[in-house]
Amino acid sequence: MSTYRADELQGIIKINPEICKGCDSCKSFCPTDAINGAYGATHEIDGEKCLQCGQCLVNCPFGAIEDMADAVPAVKKKLADKETTVVATVAPAVRVALGEEFGIEPGKLLTEEMYGALKQAGFKIMDVNFAADNTIMEEGTELVEKIKKYVLGEPSEHELGPLPQFTSCCPAWVRYMELYHPKLTKHLSSAKSPQGMAGPVAKIYGATEVWHTEPENIYCVGVYPCTAKKYEASRPEFTSAADYWKKRGHTATYQDTDVVLTTRDLARLLKDLNIDLKKVEPITESDNPLAEYSGAGTIFGNTGGVMEAALRTAYFVLTGEELQELNFMPVRGLEAVKSAAVPLKLKDGREIELKVAVVHGTKNVEPLIQEIEAGKSPYHFIEVMNCPGGCVNGGGQPINPMGTSWTSGFKAIMPWN
Amino acid sequence: MKYDYVEKAITVTRREFIGMLGIAAAMLWTGAFAVTDLVADRNKYIRMRTAGLYKDDEKQAVRQSHNNKSLMKMYETWAGKPMGHLAEELFHTRYYDRTVL
């Protein structure tokens, strides 16, 4: 029995048996216990159980785990082709980690340098932060509609799932729900992830309004801190742009996002093209509407960020005024499960309390799921990100020697390195 | 007597013994510090990247999604309303039961 549909990318994460020492480190990071093999023996990943999140990859002390879906050669070929408009859609967490591959400290914000490097490589730019704002508009509206229907008892014209609403931005988390709790997928927000929205926006709105080209000429390259995004991009229903254009006389079939590069992949591509992030000329892209973003869009890469962004908009829609204190501290930080209650004074004077929870590390979500199954969940909105810390620590990020891979930290100071 | 055995007198003085204890304790202390330091720093790079994104948030003139002017223009001129007809078609999806594929 397969847990993949036809054409879905699988087997992205693989353990190299030549290098694996059987140390069991990866097992402690796997959210679904998908890694088989006795202590000391070569380990193997069970692809049917695997979420493709890549946490084992970034935490392997021996660098034995590999990302098998390499799109760098394909992107290079498209960049060389003058007929194609190659659009890079870049996720929030990439800009604070890409520098690490070029010897810059972790966490250094390099948005302009990253734009500069992408432009030099020949990409057109769309910021996924714009799509994140788009996601908040859709997901936030859905939450507000559900609150109106289930909490305030007002009728809704939309078809809505039940409360609590789960976020749907994280592809590994969505796969986890589809695979382990298929009966509860109605709790997932029906809004696509920012990647799911970035593709149609680039190939429809971007094609006509920004780059003035035919949608067939656009090659959409997602740049994400994530290996599971490679799998998500291949989901067969993510062809909204092609379906839209087919209704308008076009015939071609293509995915919304053609290929996905991880942060590591992008660094490799840039190095391949002799572009050094340290020396590149920073640009602002201020005249590009698809690179405009709000602060709410950029914190999507942190655990609690989607929640914080959604609260800022939901608060405004429900109460009619802007949130005074924008930094919402209860959802920040690295605690496994964070929860908060936000008092709201509605436009008509009624008062309600919005109860939210934030989870990172998919294993930590089980108690909350059991609450829902028992019908006792106190929450309205729950954010889940598969990777500890959120996308900033995604499986596609640079492998940091400060992490659990302590042998590489040791190796780095050895004279023969 | 045939098996008379006298144990050697202890040649470590009280002061030397205390000194040796001190050295042993210092070595254990250093080792424990190095290990706890490694564990404490394990998440440091995650915290640094997190701080980077919060800094980007504070840097922005606009900090709420509904105030993103280009996005609102896109809704007005093309996509309609959030959860509207076109938005449902392009920005919403459905989920699959992967246990029965």
Automatic annotation (TrEMBL), chain A:
Regions crossing the membrane: none
Domain of life: Bacteria
GO molecular function: ferredoxin hydrogenase activity; iron ion binding; iron-sulfur cluster binding
InterPro entries: 4Fe4S_Fe-S-bd, 4Fe4S_Fe_S_CS, Cytosolic_Fe-S_CAF, Fe_hydrogenase, Fe_hydrogenase_lsu_C, Fe_hydrogenase_subset
Domain 4Fe-4S ferredoxin-type, first and last residues per copy: 11-40, 41-71
SUPFAM superfamilies named among the record's database cross-references: 4Fe-4S ferredoxins, Fe-only hydrogenase
Keyword field: Iron, Iron-sulfur, Metal-binding
PANTHER family assigned to the protein according to its UniProt record, in alphabetical order: NITRATE, FORMATE, IRON DEHYDROGENASE (PTHR11615)
NCBIfam families recorded: FeFe_hydrog_A
Name of the protein this chain belongs to: Ferredoxin hydrogenase large subunit
From TrEMBL, chain B:
Acetylation is among the record's keywords: no
Superkingdom of this protein's organism: Bacteria
Keywords carried by this UniProt record: Membrane, Transmembrane, Transmembrane helix
GO molecular function: electron transfer activity; ferredoxin hydrogenase activity; iron ion binding; iron-sulfur cluster binding
Pfam families to which the protein is assigned, alphabetical: Fe_hyd_SSU
Transmembrane regions listed in the UniProt entry: 17-40
Residue ranges that the Swiss-Prot or TrEMBL entry lists as coiled coil: none
Iron hydrogenase small subunit domain segment(s): 40-99
GO cellular component terms attached to this protein's record: periplasmic space
Entry-linked SMART domains: Fe_hyd_SSU
Protein name, per record: Ferredoxin hydrogenase small subunit
Species, as recorded: Selenomonas ruminantium
Lineage: Bacteria, Bacillati, Bacillota, Negativicutes, Selenomonadales
